[in-house]
Amino acid sequence: MASPRLETYCCPNRDAATQLVMSFQPDVFCGVCIGSASISVLLTILQLLPKKGQSPRKMPKASSSSTILLLISVCDIFGGLGMIFRSSVWLGFPGFIANISAVNGTDMWPSVFCVGSAMWIQLLYSAGFWWLFCYAVDSYLVVRRSAGLSTIVLYHMMTWGLAVMLCVEGIALLYYPSLSSCENGLEHAIPHYITTYAPLLLVLVVNPILFRRTVSAVASLLKGRQGIYTENERRLGTEIQIRFFKIMLVFIICWSSNIINESLLFYLEMQPDINEMPLKNIRSAALITWIIMGVLNPMQGFLFTLAFYGWTGWRVDLKWRKREIPWESMSSSTVGENAYPSPVNYQTNIHDSKKVSTTDSQQTDEAISMLSEGNTSGDDRLTRSSPIYQGW
User: How much is the pTM?
Assistant: First the structure.
């Protein structure tokens, strides 16, 4: 799982709270992480592969939202692979891992592995948090018609730049001036924990606000499209709202245990002796949430694909086939219809006004379809039955 305790464990003089959770049934904990991460990675890949008997998703144009959803899944897959590799080494080479605790050890490779694997996991999941934040921003901007494929470059710069910067900064402050002297006080640990949990808390606080505003903007967009708010438009708005709710529900389920566990461990760190009898219940709660983190953190990848696309089925289609691009035929037919302009001026003006209206309608359709892309076939039937999709 992704926890800043993984990095603090690399310090030979680690704090008592970190020692408590990292030394609690390490074989069982690593086995839980391997099992959960393996299941999640396999099911996530299965969800993303094309399926037999399913028609390709038809979009008016490629969108940055679909790219962001894919990148979130990719970050979860590689983060899960990092967990599998790290836990496998811990289980397979216990003597190699035991050298991490040696204060005056001469072998540097255990520490390099400890720091490198922990940074890999933290970086990938932090990037996933930033991409999820970008998805909320992009959804809002798409409805406001202020985003497009060109903004994906800005999202890449922000996501990877901030993820790398915060990860490196937190690790540098934790291990300063060296591994042998890190974690000597809270001035080393607190900046590291802040840089780790800042993107997580950002998603928890800001994403619901952006999603709520996006849903309100979608309702206004649907009303303005036809001048009325029919049952189909209402149901479409509800589907988008449910999709956002599923995304936040998965995120809260997978990461709330981290916040609870970290709060308990910080409380234990403030105590003179964490082994005192009155602290038994707090120690037990910290150990229980520690195991829960090992189960839920890696499962985020698969659960997110369910929230994004629904269950896509087992029948995988690995055959390559050319997909029809629906807007190409529409563009060619439009050119054919307008190949001979009217010689009368007032007819040309009418045609121009209709063209502007049609363009505005197409932008509205594209904005809504970007938010509802990836839905199941039932959602596709719903959107196609809506009046704003009749033109597509």
Answer: 0.80
Q: Is 44 domain-assigned?
A: yes
Task: Give the pLDDT means over successive 10-residue stretches in the chain (392 positions).
Answer: 81 82 89 96 94 56 78 96 94 80 65 89 95 93 70 91 92 78 68 89 95 88 66 81 94 95 90 87 94 95 94 78 40 38 39 44 56 51 37 30
Residue 192 is encoded by which pair of tokens?
């590291």
Burial (Cβ within 10 Å: 0-12, 13-18, ≥19) of residue 381: exposed
Q: Closest Cα to residue 287, out of 15, 20, 9?
A: 20
Question: For residues 335 and 214, what is the distance between their CA atoms, to the nearest angstrom?
Answer: 34
Identify which of 136, 146, 148 has the alpha carbon closest to the alpha carbon of residue 212: 136
Nearest alpha carbon to residue 142 among 158, 155, 127, 157: 155
Q: CB within 8 A of 50, min separation 6: which ones?
A: 56, 316, 317, 318
For 104, the 3-state DSSP assignment is coil
Q: How many residues does the chain have?
A: 392
Is 341 among the domain residues?
A: no
Q: Give whole-number Cα distances, 86 to 16, 24, 34, 96, 113, in Å.
A: 22, 17, 9, 12, 8
Q: Is residue 228 assigned to a domain?
A: yes
Which CATH number goes with the domain that contains 31? 1.20.1070.10
Report, in angstroms and rounded to the nearest whole number, the Rg of the chain calculated over CA atoms.
Answer: 26
How many distinct structural domains can be found in the chain? 1
Q: Which range marks the domain in which residue 108 is found?
A: 4-53+71-309
Cβ atoms within 10 Å of 201's Cβ, excluding its own: 13
The span from the CA of 306 to the CA of 47, in Å, is 8
